[in-house]
Amino acid sequence: MKRISYAIYCALFCFGIMSMSQLWAAEEGASKKSMELKQVKGEEGKVSTANVFNRLLKKDKARNLPPPEDGVHDADNEGTHVLQPPLIAYEGLPKTDFGNYVDWVQALQKGYLNPRYDRVDPTVEPLVMDLDIVREVKASVPDVVFPHKPHTQWLHCSNCHPAIFIPQKNANQINMSAILLGQKCGVCHGKVSFPITTLSCKKCHSKPKPDNWKPPLSSASVKNPWR
Amino acid sequence: MNNIKGYVSRWRVAFAAIVACLAVVLIPQSSTAEYADVVINNYADAAGMRPAVFPHWYHRIRFRCKVCHADLGFKFKAGGNKITMAKIIDGQFCGACHNGEISWSVENCGMCHSGIPGTPTSIHGSTIQRLVAPTYKSLPSDTKK
Question: Do A154 and B64 touch (CB under 8 A)?
Answer without folding.
Answer: yes
